[in-house]
Each structure stands twice: as structure tokens, then as C-alpha cells.
Specification:
single chain, alpha/beta, Aspartate Aminotransferase, domain 1, Aspartate Aminotransferase, domain 2, three-stranded antiparallel β-sheet
Length: 534
């Protein structure tokens, strides 16, 4: 299908090019100015001509890769939810619910999560340095936030937070991030390996742009996967090589599955360039065991693959028997250095306990690439000039938070622990609720911000979905939204084993709203199953 679309687009472009050359030859002729008819320049003639001319931009003339890419977490269900919300503003009684509950996207502060005070104090002081010299500031801001703001401003040329920075990010902030990585992993980190970006997503796009040369280049991606990966691979013209996580073993990642998919792709002439691993998992919420990670590192080393480690949920681990280990730490503990494995690690200020999605901060740590390739990565970063300065500052704060003995440490720790413990309780409550629903099974919520329950739908519901020209899980989610105002994302937007159906639910609505979500969902699910039973 991909080749057909691209082939059709090429034919279209070629015919358009030939038409353009023909018209250009006519227009460039010296005789084009010799028309004896005054009507040629008349407004009515021009108007008539333009009215019959095809629009210069249509679905047939835009890049087919744009049409191919999809992003489910802001897809059709969310568009419907936004329309319902607009209706409710003018007609509050139009629907059987009082508010739309967005459980579709990892956007914590939109659902009531409060920002970390220390982070916001430092940001405020950096954005308006004039107040640092005012006596009132000492009473409004903690001493360590004032000190940190001075430190950061001293690292910025001219203390100008509204100016462009170095394309990799402000050097002093990269120093802080490198120190944070080293403290986390116990292995050295080089600030020159760090590229600050507007969240993790642009870093992923940058690596896809670097690695994908044509549709013959493949990227191994987990299924289910976060749609950023399928979308970016499509946009950059590559091929997604799926490997399936094992739902029966808690969404386990089996190296045997990686090998099978790699060999299958190579037999089709696909050159697999990289392996994407999301840990903790999105949308699946699993946390990889260290031994599993070692096997993955060994696989990438043996097969010559770049390891793309999406680690944006590294703070979101909710079960005592699991712990986050970065792939950098794992590979270094195995004795593998720069010359042994190419590894790119992604981190973001949008997730964790901070949830600063709108500030667009993040970074990638790029290791195991030659100096010549690093120059090319820097060139691509330079095209975008730099990432935003507030996001850069936040990334440095996330990786260098208050320490024991700092004035803000106790309040910072209380805020962080309060958010994470509440997320763990919400995850458990929703997990238990899903497992009580008829035909629904949900794996343990080990980490991240989501649950990905499987739903076995009655045959009549599947046929009703087909009649509505919807995937069965999309049909279920659409009906759920119309009846309850709850927004879930269909599993078909993330990929799943054929013949199985799922939906993704965030654990982010505030804790006091979780019981209402459970009640609404339970009542809807019972009536839905009764409607389509037998």
C-alpha cells in the first residue's frame, strides 16, 4: 500500500512537472505579449480563468508521507470530545454528564496536577531577573531558588533568557544535566553528548531524520507503541518493523521476538537501522528487568543496531519489586563503551512527577557515534537554532533538583512523593476496576502513566463497529465518550496483536475524580455488554 501511494504520488508529480514545463515554455515565448485581444487582460477574463483553475494544494498534491502518518492520542475521539465540550458551553444540559474527562494523553497539569514550587520559582526569577535585586524577593522566594537562578543566569550570555542559545543548549545547563546523569548511573556523562530539545519528540524526529535514508531502512518498534514512532518513521519515509510485546507475561520484551522480526525484515530487503525501547512502557506501563535490558544491549551490539532508549517515564515506577535502570548504565556496567554500542537516550520534563508538558523541555544523550556523524547531528540541531530557554532551564532542574540541606529540599520532596504516591494509588484503583469488568483484563500498572486493558467484545458489537466503519475498540471508545464524557484512546491507534482489542487510559485525573470515572465506566460497560450480548 505504501509503495502504491508513493508510486501514485511520483506519477502525479511527474505529470505536474511536465505540465509546468509546457506552460513555462508558452509563458516565456516572446509572442505572449502580442495578444491583440484587450479581453486577455480584463478582470472578468482573469476571474473566469482563476475560477476554473485547480487549487494549488490538495490531498493529491501534498506529501503522501504526511497523509500516511497518524497520531492516535489526538485523533478522532479527541476531536469528538472537543466538539462535545463546545456544545456543553452553550447547552450545559445537552449531555448526560457535566464535564469531559480527558484520559487520552499524558498531560498532567491540564488535569489538575500542580507544578513543583522550586522549579517554578527558579523559572520566574530567571525570566524576570530584575526582581532578584529587590528586597521583597527574599521573603517571597526560597534562598536556594534565588541562588540557583543566579547560577543559571550567570551561565547565559548577557543573562538574556529571551535570546538564542548554543544549538545544543546552554553549556552550563548541559553540565548540570551531565552531573545528574552521572549521579543517577554511577558512570561518567559528557555535556557535549547532550542535545537539549523542545521535549523528547523533536529529538526522536532528529534521529529518524538521521537514520532513515529510504523506505528500505527499517526501525524496530514495540507493538503496542507510542504513535510518535510510527508517525515519525512514516514522515521520514522509513519502514516500521514491529516487534510484539507479550501481553501474557506482563508485556514482556523477548529477544527471540526481536531476532525473528529482524530476520524477517532482512529477508525482505529491509536494512534495520535501530531498535526503539520504551522503558517504562507507553502505552503498556511495564518496567523492564535489568537482566532483560542486558540481553537487549547485547542484541543491539551483535546486530549493529542503534539503541533508541525512550526513558521519559524514568521517575514513574510504582511497584517496589521494580526499579528503573537507564540503558546507558546497563551498557556501561556490561563493560561496553563508546566504541561498542551506539545509544541515544531520551528524557523529557513533560512526564515524571513534574508534568511540565507545555514548557517543552527535554534532551537526548548521544553516545557511540563518530565525530563526523556528531557534526551532522549538530548541523540538524542548528537548523532549528535552539530549543526554548525555559525548557532548557527546566531540564537542568529536573536532573539537578534540591539536595538534602537545601532550604527547599523538604517541600520539594513532599511535593514529589505526594504526586508519585497518588499516581500509584490511582493506577491500582483503575487496574482493579478494569479487571472487574466483564471481558476485560488489565496487566499490573508497574510504571509510566497509562493502563492498556484488553477487551473481548461480543460478536454483535464487532459487527456493529464494522457497519459504522470503525475498528471495534474505536467504536467502544466512541460510545463510551457519548455516554459518559470519558476519553480513552482505542488500542488500534497504538498497534496490537491482530484480533485483539484494547484501549489506553491515563492515570492522571485527580484522585478525587477516580471513583466517578470508575462508576461511570462500570455502568456504561454493563449496558454496552447487555446491548450486544448473544
Amino acid at each position: 500500500m505504501r509503495r502504491f501511494v508513493i508510486g501514485s504520488a511520483r506519477n502525479l508529480i511527474e505529470s505536474s512537472r511536465q505540465k509546468y514545463q509546457f506552460e513555462r515554455s508558452i509563458l516565456s515565448s516572446p509572442y505572449r505579449f502580442l495578444s491583440s485581444s484587450p479581453a486577455a487582460d480584463s478582470p472578468s477574463s482573469s476571474s473566469s480563468s482563476s475560477s476554473t483553475m485547480a487549487h494549488p494544494v490538495s490531498l493529491n498534491t501534498i506529501n503522501p508521507k504526511v497523509i500516511e502518518c497518524e497520531y492516535a492520542v489526538r485523533g478522532e475521539i479527541v476531536t469528538l470530545a472537543q466538539k462535545l465540550q463546545e456544545e456543553m458551553q452553550t447547552k450545559p444540559d445537552a449531555h448526560p454528564f457535566e464535564e469531559i474527562l480527558y484520559c487520552n494523553i499524558g498531560n498532567p497539569q491540564s488535569l489538575g496536577q500542580q507544578p513543583i514550587t522550586f522549579f517554578r520559582e527558579v523559572l520566574a526569577l530567571c525570566d524576570h531577573p530584575a526582581i532578584l535585586d529587590k528586597s521583597e524577593t527574599q521573603g517571597l522566594f526560597s534562598a536556594d531558588s534565588i541562588e540557583r537562578a543566579w547560577q543559571i543566569l550567570d551561565q547565559i550570555p548577557g543573562r538574556a533568557t529571551g535570546a538564542y542559545s548554543h544549538s545544543q543548549g546552554i553549556k552550563g545547563l548541559r553540565d548540570t544535566i551531565a552531573a545528574g546523569i552521572e549521579a543517577r548511573d554511577g558512570f561518567p556523562a559528557d555535556p557535549n553528548d547532550i542535545f537539549l530539545t523542545d521535549g523528547a519528540s523533536p529529538a526522536v524526529h532528529m534521529m529518524m531524520q538521521l537514520l532513515i535514508r529510504s523506505e528500505k531502512d527499517g526501525i524496530l518498534c514495540p507493538i503496542p507503541q507510542y504513535p510518535l514512532y510510527s508517525a515519525s518513521i512514516a514522515l521520514h519515509g522509513g519502514t516500521l518493523v514491529p516487534y510484539y510485546l507479550d501481553e501474557a507475561t506482563g508485556w514482556g520484551l523477548e529477544v527471540s521476538e526481536l531476532k525473528k522480526q529482524l530476520e524477517t525484515s532482512r529477508s525482505k530487503g529491509i536494512t534495520v537501522r535501530a531498535l526503539v525501547v520504551i522503558n517504562p512502557g507507553n502505552p503498556t506501563g511495564q518496567v523492564l528487568a535489568e537482566e532483560n535490558q542486558k540481553a537487549i544491549v547485547e542484541f543491539c551490539k551483535q546486530e549493529g543496531l542503534v539503541l533508541l532508549a525512550d526513558e521519559v517515564y524514568q521517575e514513574n515506577v510504582y511497584v517496589p519489586e521494580k526499579k528503573f535502570h537507564s540503558f546507558k548504565k546497563v551498557s556501561r556496567s556490561m563493560g561496553y563503551g563508546e566504541k561498542d554500542i551506539a545509544l541515544v537516550s531520551f528524557q523529557s520534563v513533560s512526564k515524571g512527577y513534574y508534568g511540565e508538558c507545555g514548557k517543552r523541555g527535554g534532551y537526548m544523550e548521544v553516545t557511540g557515534f563518530g565525530a563526523d556523524v556528531r557534526e551532522q547531528i549538530y548541523k540538524v540541531a542548528s537548523v532549528n537554532l535552539c530549543s526554548n530557554i525555559s525548557g532548557q532551564i527546566l531540564a537542568s532542574l529536573v536532573m539537578g533538583p534540591p539536595k538534602v540541606g537545601d532550604e527547599s529540599y523538604e517541600s520539594y520532596s513532599a511535593e514529589r512523593d505526594g504526586i508519585l504516591s497518588s499516581l500509584a494509588r490511582r493506577a491500582k484503583t483503575l487496574e482493579d476496576a478494569f479487571n472487574k469488568l466483564e471481558g476485560v483484563t488489565c496487566n499490573k500498572a508497574e510504571g509510566a502513566m497509562y493502563l492498556f486493558p484488553r477487551i473481548d467484545l461480543p460478536e454483535k458489537a464487532i459487527k456493529a463497529a464494522e457497519a459504522a466503519k470503525k475498528a471495534p475498540d474505536a467504536y467502544y471508545c466512541q460510545r463510551l465518550l457519548a455516554a459518559t464524557g470519558i476519553v480513552f484512546v482505542p488500542g488500534s491507534g497504538f498497534g496490537q496483536v491482530p484480533g485483539t482489542w484494547h484501549f489506553r487510559c491515563t492515570i492522571l485525573p485527580q484522585e478525587e475524580k477516580i471513583p466517578a470515572i470508575v462508576t461511570r465506566l462500570t455502568d456504561f460497560h454493563k449496558s454496552f455488554m447487555d446491548e450486544f450480548r448473544g
